[in-house]
Amino acid sequence: MSYDSTRISEQLRVLEPAISEFIVRYNINTVLGPAGGGPRQTVFIFPGGMASRLMRAKTPYVPGVANQIFDYDEAWINPFTFLGDARHLKMTRAGSTHSDKWNKIIVADGLINLFGVTPYVLFTLWCTLKKLDYFVFPWDWRRSVAEVSDFFIATFLPFFRDLVKAGCNNADPLQRFSLIGHSAGGMVVNWALRSGDGLIIAGLDKAITVATPFYGYGGQLHRWFEGEEYLNGLGNVFRSGIIKAICSFPGCYAWMFLPEATYLANQGAFNGDPNYPLAVYPSVDFAAGGHADPYNPLTNGAQHRYPSATSSGFDDVELASAKLVVDHLSSPLGAGQAAQLWNIRGDTLAGNTHNRTRWKWVPPTAPSPINDVDWAAGDGVQPAWTARHVDLDAVAGHVITIKSPLATHTTLMSLPETIAEIAGILGVP
What we know:
Layout: H1 3-32, E1 42-46, E2 52-57, E3 72-76, E4 91-94, E5 97-100, E6 106-111, H2 121-129, E7 133-136, H3 145-167, E8 177-182, H4 185-193, H5 198-203, E9 204-210, H6 219-226, H7 239-247, H8 260-265, H9 267-271, E10 283-285, E11 299-300, E12 303-304, H10 309-312, H11 316-329, H12 335-340, E13 341-347, E14 353-359, E15 370-376, E16 399-403, H13 416-426
């Protein structure tokens, strides 16, 4: 088996205990009766980017050795994450596949846990109390949304179905199911909705996104030059390594503001949002003020938009691949898809969300060439205009805004107001 096929096999194996827990809950709910007495359904929850726990194999993968099975240590988040260890999440691309540092396989397993608390503890508690058959699907947020989504659809779902049917008296957990994605997890939901796969078409009831950047956001541009403040270490001692790690993650390339062509094609719809209009393209040149498309960066003589591959590892191949992903995720929805999709977004009522970026040519890369010039309504991370697909303007009630000082990006999924809206969408009393 190759590195990649071994990693996929290991990812399924690592998820088996969580599936076993689902089977126990499913059988208990069978005895207790479905939520509200109505038809039951499975609810898959996709955590936001960086909310899934990543585990690293203790020993390297050995090429040519069959049936390798590994033990794992926590790679994200562990006690050393903020002391430089996050640098070692770096990936290496070989053709169309990506391997992990030291050839030690990394898989996703559950949610990050800080002092015994997971990010969605209140939401999953609500699911339990309402007797919903829920499954939290952890995913490797470093990898492309397309890769993660295709694994979920083509590999995980059949595996999940077979185990659950074997453990639940042949009950089919995919006869009716819904998908809920928070932040970047909603990008996976968006991809799955568009997949056309037979399992999705046959069983999908609702697709719900919460604080999902359909058209990107301003935070990612900073990371190519600045790293991540809470990972860079005291005095930015680890910043160079953090930047190189981030530049190796295919998934991060799809988090930037939308391509210029997408904005121009939907300019009327963006500006027509009655409460959260996007009046101008959100990424502009620092000096001239013209559009600076993150997915078509161009050059200015010897200057470029991004840091050099030598200094940062920035990868033009990954940028081109990401453009295909963002074009697909922002493309028009079919009428049936729009009818199944709901977008929930937050507004903290503080107007404190980065809304537009001015961008200098590089070199030099220090100080950072990225400058945020205005702020707008949003959840503190995602501006409200990016968290709804413009095609849902034609479907009454499918774009929902939670207005509260507590409607921040990290807390939105746990707010009673959000849970009440999701309950209404799912038909849970």
